[in-house]
């Protein structure tokens, strides 16, 4: 991973860099999407945060990184990883998830941690530290790739992912006088992969390849598989994190308890997720819980749009062995 030559210490450094980067209209209608190190990053996502994260984060062997393309099940996986990894501290009945958003408990590097403060003090956090991340695998700080920390990646079929992304942009639109683009208007950019943290194929393939090369380091999960069999996938996650469920835990129903705690209906109906707001971005917590279904894309994309987009994805993923259920 190559960081920008000049550290982005100030707003001026950032503006200078932006002048040199290819840019596109984001879903919010603003010219705020920039191609940086091969990834399309909305400037609102904070490029300075991305830069500081790459320069300064030092991974510990016990860290857990929850990585994803946005709108692929990040919130869900954050809740699951937190519950599995911290279950010896909090039982399901006393989980901090009952009163705190998964995004507070598992903060994103690029926005929550490194955007305001370039050197946040993360040393004090009790192990295992759990962080969220939307960066491409190749853009992660070397210490994440070189340490023994664990990376869990979740992906989702690209049609539902883009629809979820689009719906989120609509729900969270700030009134800045600029109109949102319609799905038709941004379809051509979508097909080129030019939307937040895209191209989709580069984001997923980086982690997919890493998970095949280093299965002890990177666990690759799919939203659709979790929907189909959450208990099986929770066991897989716990095993991967080095904290498998014991026979006794299984008999006591701990796995099912975590699945229930982190289920869409349970999390969505908690006071904190109904009425809370993300502190930095101002996004309502409720915007992270919309339908949580597989196949909702049929309500938004025409058959020809879907087919064309899937053809592009299929071509980009050729030879990788990665496929999706829509
Ligand atoms: P993020 O990357 O911005 O954090 P992320 O959590 O990945 O967002 O995506 C939100 C999607 O996950 C929403 O999908 P939808 O728009 O198709 O409905 C949201 O509903 C879904 N989601 C959130 N929590 C859960 C959950 N516990 N179970 C299943 N789906 C969930």
UniProtKB/TrEMBL annotation:
It comes from Salix brachista. Keywords: Transferase. One of its GO terms (molecular function) is sulfotransferase activity. Coiled coil: none annotated. This is Sulfotransferase. Residues 61-321 form the Sulfotransferase domain. The keyword Transport does not apply. Its EC number is 2.8.2.-. SUPFAM superfamilies: P-loop containing nucleoside triphosphate hydrolases. The keyword Signal does not apply. Belongs to the sulfotransferase 1 family.
